[in-house]
Amino acid sequence: MELNTVLTGGHSQMVLCLGVNAGGQVASGGEGGEVCFWSPDGEIVSQKSFPSRADVNSVCFPPQQGSVVYVSAGEVIELLDIRSPECSQATFAFHNEDVNQITVDPKDGFLAACDDDGLIKVIDLRSHKVLRTLKGHSAICSSVRYHPTVPREIASGGLDCVVHLWETTRASPRTSVNMREVTAAGMEDELMPSPYMVNPPFVHSLDFSPAGDVLACGLESARVQLLGRGGRRDLWPGASLEGHTRGVTQVAFVPNHPGRTQDLLLTAGNDCRMMLWETANITSEDSFLPENSPSITSADKLETIDLTSTKSKIPPAYQSSGSGRERESDKRNQGACSSALKKKKATLSMKHKDKINWLAPSTSVGSVNLVFVADVSEIISVYQWKLA
């Protein structure tokens, strides 16, 4: 992986977020209400400054429309045409606190946005009305993602250390995974303190694999936790990727292209590092919770890991009932569980000059991969690598 070029002149303050459409056009949002649109060759197409000067925390190209982009500035979301962004095509002012991320469903019918109140607003893009407000997080909701092939399915994560899986037809989460308990289960056999134990597992970033069978979670504890998604739209803890030494601020799967046979995951964090992971074998059956784990009943009934909903699904180390002998047996089972979560090494690791705010990967013709990187500066860095 090497630095290809830098994009300059579009921002006067820190760049906070990025988006890339299928045609290679880039949208960038930053502090002070600045948003900039770039051509595939790195030239500025257009710019806009929001009068409110509220930070632009998220930009999102709808999957089926390449020339428009949804942009959040503070608590307001606007639909802009990248060729003439001065006039907004639509405005959605349904949030009371700053919006942290926007996501659009695969059919361009609905938009979901999460905010500092911990709420997720699901907006019907045809009627421009709120379809539903999802209330499940007890702290800031930092990330939200639509499933790439299931229009009504959303994953969300927040600073309450919880990941929820929602159906937008339901007011409550279908499945919930508490990262504190997943982390505790994986640390049973650790003898020395590590970043994975000291820092709380706040959820900073989420992304589904292209097929939607894996959800990657970037955590403040420096860990990337993979969650498997079952056929009945449930989640369960899988392998953890341990390579970062500080909080993981971004996880992003590389878009698929013809000829690629495996998923590639990019991660970045406050340790100023970017890492590329090949997830082909990480998500195999033996990398998920084993049959003897107290958290599930059998290997072929991986229906849900809602570690917060009922006492029976909480790891035994957190349960007060039962004899000492039973608890010792549970600890041995939990140790087997943690050892089964394979610790993989990154395929590539790259040191960046600053802490990273956002990653936006893109695949071009000829198997040349680009990743656009926003950090604490006003410059966007563009890295490339070529697959063998």
Please characterize this protein's 3D structure:
This protein has about 400 residues and is mainly beta. The chain is built from three helices and 29 strands. The radius of gyration is 21 Å and the shape is globular. The strands form seven sheets. The protein has a five-stranded mixed sheet with strand order 18-19-20-21-25, with no helix packed on it. The protein has a four-stranded antiparallel sheet with strand order 1-29-28-27, with no helix packed on it.
Write a brief caption for the model:
Helices cover 7% and strands 44% of the residues. It is mainly beta. The chain is globular.
Entry keywords:
388 residues; 3 helices; WD40/YVTN_repeat-like_dom_sf; WD40_repeat_dom_sf; WD repeat-containing protein 53-like; WD40_rpt; WD repeat
Instruction: Please give the alpha-carbon distance between the first and last residues.
Output: 12 Å
Low-pLDDT stretches are: 284-341
Beta content: 35-45%
Q: Tell me the radius of gyration.
A: 21 Å
Which structural class is indicated by helix and strand composition? mainly beta
Number of helices: 3
Oligomer: single chain
Strand order of the largest sheet: 18-19-20-21-25
Whole-number mean pLDDT: 83
Shape: globular
Main β-sheet description: 5 strands, mixed
Tell me roughly what share of residues is in helical segments.
Answer: under 10%
The count of strands amounts to 29
